[in-house]
Amino acid sequence: MAEPIFWINPGRRKLVDCRQGLGLGMEEINDAADRLARFAPLLAALFPELALTGGLIESELLDVPVFLRRVFEGSGGRFAGGLFVKADHALPVAGSIKARGGVYAVLCLAEEIALSAGLISGPNDVYAKLALPAAAEIFGGFTLTTGSTGNLGLSIGVMGRALGFRVVVHMSTEAKAWKKRRLRALGATVIEHDGDYSLACATARQEAAGDPQTRFIDDENSRELFLGYAVAALRLNDQLAARKISVDAEHPLFLYLPCGVGGAPGGLTFGARLVFGDHVHCFFAEPTQAPCMLLGLATGKREAISVRDIGLTGRTEADGLAVSRPSRLAAAYMAPLVDGGFTVADEDMFLGLLQLREAEGLEVEPSSAAVLSGPRRLFTEPEGREYLERTGLLAVADRATHILWTSGGALISSDRHKAFRERGREAREARSLRP
Ligand SMILES: *Cc1c(COP(=O)(O)O)cnc(C)c1O
Prior knowledge:
There is one protein chain. The chain is 45% helix and 13% strand. The protein has 17 helices and eleven strands. It has helices at residues 15-18, 26-46, 65-72, 98-116, 133-139, 151-163, 177-185, 197-208, 223-242, 263-276, 292-299, 328-337, 346-360, 366-369, 374-380, 382-390, 414-430; strands at residues 6-8, 61-63, 83-87, 143-148, 166-171, 189-192, 214-217, 253-258, 280-287, 340-344, 401-406. Helix 2 (26-46) crosses helix 9 and helix 4 packs across helix 9. The structure holds pyridoxal-5'-phosphate. Pyridoxal-5'-phosphate (PLP) binds next to helix 10 and helix 14. The site of pyridoxal-5'-phosphate has 19 residues, from helix 10 and helix 14.
């Protein structure tokens, strides 16, 4: 039986003590933010849904007062400072958190190819030109390939096809049929694998090797994906400032992030630690059957250990988190930066998404829902309380801000959302909780 656990990372360091060893820093995050700004007019032209934000892909920071009252009342935590949902489940263009990393990784390649083909002359050129047929013809000579449990492929497919790239996505067993259909409708090639995510990645990597016209977007190692996610920390900083919410020693910030291979939560944590320093505390949520990052960090073996090595299946309804081995890059970065992690049974994800929908009307997929119990568990589980006491965070808990980072759901049909909620009701009945 896989029991849910709450884990505190003994390796977390103060930023001054680990910044030197990181390799990437604020300069690279700012560079990524600048690149996204350069491409914004092009994205606004390609995707009408981005007209309002001038081509920036960003989500709202939402108040969830009813959810807060219903779910956290009596949990021993004091959430007076506020509880928010960072609504990446509704990110435009790809409908998931992959609209940050996946889109950014494609734009990096497009820029490199456009520069070397002479389509643009430099970063000050007019990037909207890259929507013209002449650019699509150049991009069409290249194939983008990736391994995916679904959403990464979707995001790379949407962005890549919009620019005219050929796109080949290697899907692991978890990938849902509708995501494959959608990708094929976009003109992407989908290759289905009867194996897990690492296998899908390995096949894509192998195919790309030695072919200069094929570019592999490597979710297990990609610096570009990581930095695309990290930019979110700059945006969050602005959103908190707009609400006059401070982040400092007296006002800590807690982020609860869903973790698959670790690129998304890793990039967000990396960015957040650089922006908010030691005052942000990041916790990763993973399925009980696929806690690859927690296992990699707790054992120190990082990507060298798989959840299968300890008898877990890697199987979960949270398809975005169905990964049995963490990203090498993300695991290395997270070792000194992340505060900890916790694992969640699938039934609790279904129960969480039901509660969030009942309280706030938000519809998220199971992967997103993994984070929802984070604050309660931090304040109620012995490991969490001990950590809060030891670090002095308990004394300022009244002034803390907690953010539940949701990551997918917007593209899922209402019938599927209904079926998710049905699973939540079954879980609630099984526990004979009141409705
Ligand atoms: C990919 C994904 C995650 C996790 O991101 P990783 O980079 O794999 O850790 C979380 N939620 C959803 C919906 C996803 O698609």
